[in-house]
């Protein structure tokens, strides 16, 4: 049998010997010398063969993709400047959405040529002055807008780099060794934008073009003012600045849409989607499809709306405002997940440098926790404990207060994590709440129980931690549905488990309501939570009955999956003991009994249960939002819960 020795060669056997070609090309090189492109070292070349260098995979430039040389001083029409400014804003929004600077903002070539278009360095007699294309539109107007764009990105980058959102997971920090004008004061950029507006008022262009350019420059200035605002010192300035930005955006949107540049226009060369080839970066090249101009205005409006929401929360002096506002945005489909910059800004504004809302000491969180959960101020709780203290040693609440502050900060900040991160954070907090419960319970063992109010405080104080712990457990289970984590056979178990957690919550809420003054805001909020959770429990039971029809696995298999899925509920020191749980829920065997009861129930109808739950949710409208610690957020919560029904 004849054997073909070349049949297994990759690519076949049609190879050409190129040795002479390489010898001829290297004939003028000295022994030991290496040809390297700028920014690409021998170490980079060696690593490319080992791990795969993205810059080696950027692709060759085809003849039809070859671009003319970009000349930054080429005069442009006013409409072309408007188009460049609008497109650059689209690039900025795409960076906020999680793309890299090299794929978005840095594709604007003027960001790399600010020195070339500096009016103080440009020799005016060397530039051809076209009456329809004043060179000042490039050197003064466009340059000021690009400078403002980079400074906005600089302030956003500083906030994002604080670590409250995760690099490469929420956002991309790679700058590619390109300056974001970090050393340029914001006042200088604002002065340049004002100078651009002054120039436009006397420029030889039409009134329509002048207004279109001025409105875009003023919009950039308003955005820069908002970006650079230090909320810890000047939060009162946020609302008026947002009004200015809103008005500027409204004026820009009310103008006729800017047409795209004509074919062959130099403005089309202002953006190079392949700029990654020439930058120092480690991310493979990818072309970003920018949205329409209208999409950009919508995204910018959502960004301003997020700032307005932050301003409202900064002026709400209650823990419930942040808890309710965060819950609504985490669960309602009415609200999109804010961009990472805004989520980081919310976290920074809530708690930074041991201060809450930039004005309250950290102990303010402890006071609001007891007042809004127990109906008693921290001072009253501390006074009662000290009077009833029976231990010979001193009562030390400092460690408990520190732990409570840490837990509350993480709990509130978690609303502005991305959904998977929030789920993991809440899993850790379940154990933290248990630790706090144990500490509070140990504290109450040393109290004299002679007076009734002391006995009630000793009973209810540890349960405040349990109430928040159960709320975190409920959020974790439901977030699994939100993130589509459950397999079909896990869904009925999760709905059943949700109902069990809610049952424990309702029992605790009844205890709290029986001990809180009926005319207090705390009682009104506890009543709302009870009625809402009853409806949610009914929906969970109905969905458990509906989804249980698809169960096919054995009981043993489902029990193992149950332990694996809900391992965060078990004490880590007793991993094999199902009875040692942080939250004392019924054992898994009760699930099968529950399913059998649902199936055998002659009068049980999931449809009727859902209708009854809807009626309960609609009944929440009768609760006055003003009878809440956070009236605006409570009204928003009602709109989300009732309107879809």
From TrEMBL:
InterPro entries: NAA35-like_N, Naa35_N, TPR_NAA35
Pfam families xref list: Mak10, TPR_NAA35
Subcellular location: Cytoplasm
Any single GO CC term annotated in Swiss-Prot or TrEMBL for this entry: NatC complex
Keywords per UniProt: Cytoplasm
Keyword Cytoplasm: yes
NAA35-like TPR repeats domain ranges (all copies): 337-516
Superkingdom of this protein's organism: Eukaryota
Membership in a protein family: Belongs to the MAK10 family.
Name the record gives this protein: Uncharacterized protein
Organism of provenance: Meripilus lineatus
